[in-house]
Each structure stands twice: as structure tokens, then as C-alpha cells.
Amino acid sequence: MLKKGSSLLLALVLAVTVFIVPTQAGGAINPNTGGIPGSWSPGTNPAVIDPGKPAILFVHGLNGSAASWYDNNDMYQFAYNSGYQTAYINLHDITGTSQSMWDNGQLLAAKIKEISEYFGKKLVIVAHSKGGVDTQSALVHYNAYPYVSNVITLGSPHHGSQLADLAYSSWASWLSSLVGAQNPGTYSMQTSYMAYFRSLTNNHPNAGKNKFFTFAGKDWNSGSTAHFFGGLYLSSYGANDGVVTVANAHLPNGTMVKIGNWNHSSVKQGSNTFNLLKPYLVLQTAAAKSSSLVEIASAKDKKKEETPQEEQESQSFVRGGQHDGQASETFTVENDVSSVTIDWIGDKPLHQLEIIAPDGSVHKAKVSSFVDEDVFSGAWHHTATINKPGAGEWKVSAASGEPSAYLFTVAYNTKGKNKVKLQKEQGSKKLKVKTDGLKAEKTKVTYSIDFIGKDSEKLGGKQGKKRIKQQEQQLAAVDELSIPTTEGTGVYNVTAEIEGETAEGFKYQRTVIKSVFVDEQGNTFAP
What we know:
With 527 residues, the protein is α+β, with helices and mostly antiparallel strands.
């Protein structure tokens, strides 16, 4: 499973030039890291270098680059003003195609050693998003731990992200393939694949060699609209920052320092979090001195901290596909729904989005448009919220003027207790359908399963994806859904459609998306 880079890649990495940035009076100068995987640069040295302070290596996240720490971000300036030497690195994402934690981890491990030797001291790594997983892979699986003291992760998906599961679902495939959302990096962030990664990592002999301190955001709806869609979709699974749930940001054997009012971008802004990082920016020889600080911080936030929990019920309805310039979808609203938020996502902007109520009238909801900056980067969102929607069947019609791929989601905010989820028993190859508040005899589940093989991980699933079962079976609410694992190693992405009836007799619809990873020995992994 652990990948080795090609000889060509190694040659490129070995040929990388380190760009030395001269010290200038008056402040820090943005580094020039170059633009190939593995290129890195030190930041401007502070006027007085404190040998007791570590150098900080900043590691970017999925689809990011070294510049994310100093372009429109004051993290670099805060570190410089506080007297720290710093370094910034580009991983494989700089090419435009994110790679797995194995490829990024292997590259990062070699550079960690090089950067530590350049400064002549150990590093503290500050990593954003997937960069935290890449860093753990480098330290644990590629033996870079001797060169690092502590690791601080900001909004890192240590248990994956349900948005990655969505990107590989049957409904989202057309759109995600067009906008580049299917790549090795996203593939490896599926929750089932990360469950597999955790099984290889949590009890590894190197896992305890470095201390990890984690920070998580829970305010996806603040600031810009950049994380609105992700936060809305993930809200079914708990508090989140618009890309990663708080539960999935927890790291086994790590210390959750703080869960704050940040979104996935603001958590890495220096003005928001740098002062909170300071107690953990210590060399390993001084780590024992900071243990009391860690214990105090941990105890202080323990009551506020949200611990990892079982995946919650779905409160989403999902559809998607292709259209020739015009398309429509219908969705059902049951009783006790306080609001619904619809989101039409396409690879092109819409000319018109019309919402038609059950009585045939056109609903005059405000439609907001924005471009995605996360998993579906480059896709256009068109969203509208309907407060106190009437029960019944609603219709949404979209027009773009030219052929397009789309993903349509409805997020329900309900006052009722109707719940649906798929739950996997440990070691089992079956998913249990669980419902609450619905009439069992009226509830049916149809489902499709897409297989994305291990080898297609390198291609991000663009090739090698295979529909192995498509709505061939209707299940009662108490039945089990079997995962046919005959295709071998890879991710089996299950899209289940639940149709039922509430106790009051109103029609109920939800979509549940679940990924299951099967390894070479036939073991199954799922959140």
C-alpha cells in the first residue's frame, strides 16, 4: 500500500533548489518556494534567533500550496513577529492534482529531514486540513519523527470527510469528474479509506513518537459563502467547519486543544489562532515543561469538547446527472419541517432557477450564487432557503443555456424525530438500515453501489469506477444491505434512497451515502 515515487519524480525532487530569502529590516518578505512538488523556502529570519525555539514548518492542505500561509493570511507575519524561524513547502497538490497521504507523506518525510538539517534543530509542524494527515503519514510510515517535536493540526480530517464520500457517490459522479473533484487526494479522504488508514496508523510503533495537538472549527456559516455548501451538507453529521466535522477532526492519542468559532479557512489565519498555538511551539526537550499547559488546556476545554461519535442520521436528499441546458428535479417535504435549503451545483452558472410549491405557485425565494472553493472547487452553487415549507412535492427547474452536469441537494431542518441511517457492524460486510419515527411497513430502501478500485486511486477514480449494483433490491426498514466485495480491494460507495411515511401519514424521502473500504485481506472498514 505504501507508494514509492517514480525515478522521474525523485529526480525532480532532488533537483529542487532552496530559495534563500534575505533578511530585511522592517518585516518579513514572502518566500519564493518555486512551483514543483517538494520545493520549499525558509521565511525571513527574525532579528534575533532564539536557539531555544523550534523552526516552524507550515504544511498546506488539499489542493493548496505554500502560499496559503502568507497570501491573504497573516500567519507568517505573526510567526515572524513572535521570533520564530519558519519554512513553507509545496506538496504534490501544487501540480493541480492532489495526491494521497502516502505520496504526499513520502515526499514530505524527505523534506522534513532536509529542512531540519538546514535549521540545525527540530521542527514543529503546523498543518492545515489534509496536510495534518500527510504529516502523520510522513512521521509514522516514512520515519520522519526524529526531526520533529510537536505537530499542530488545524481542521484536519483525521477520520476523513463525508464530502469526499459525496464526491464519489452515484449522483455526484458527473459533476465531480468534470470539475476535478475526483483525484487521489479526495479518494483518500473518503471516510472508509481513512478508517483503513487509522487501522494502519493508530497502533504503529512510531505513532507515539511525536505529540499531536488539534484544533477544530464549528462555525461554517460565518464569513464568506466559501464553505456554505459543505457546512450545510455536513450539518447532518454534527458541528463542522464547512469541510470537516468536529468529530472527524479528533485524532486518536492526540490532544484536542480547542473547538472554536472558525470555518475551514479562518482556522488557519494567524490573527485567529497563532496565539493559541504558542504553548505547543516548543522543542521536544522543552515538551515536558509544557505538559502542565497541555493538561490545563485539555481540562479547560474538556466539557466543551465534542468527542467522536457515531455517524448521525441523514437529513439530505440528493440527485444529479447531466442535462442539455435545462433540467428539473422534485423533492418531498414532510410535516414538522421548519426549513429546507436547496443547492443546485453545476459546472456552469445558471441563467434561471425556479422553485415551484406543491400548490403550483412559483415560490419567490432569494437565490444566491457563488463558486465552490473546496471539494467541488470551480463548480457553481445556486442556493435558496425556504422557511416553513408546505408539506408535499416541490419542483425545481434550472436552465443554463448549454449542456452541463449538476448535483442537486436538499438539506432539511426538522422539528420532528424522523431519522434514517446506515450502520455497519464491526467486521461485517452488511449495512443495517435503521429508521426512527417512520412506519416500518411503509419504509423502503433502494440502493446502488459503485466500486472504485485500489488501482484507480492513482487516477482519482476517473477510470476503474464500476457500477456493481443498481437499485436491484428493495429492502424493508429492518433489513440488512449486503456489500458484494467480489470486485476486490477498493472503496464500495453506497447510495441508498429511503422512501417512507411519517406517523402522521406524510411522505418522507432522504438519501444516505456511505462508503466501505475493503483491503487486500477482505477486511471491511467504515465509520
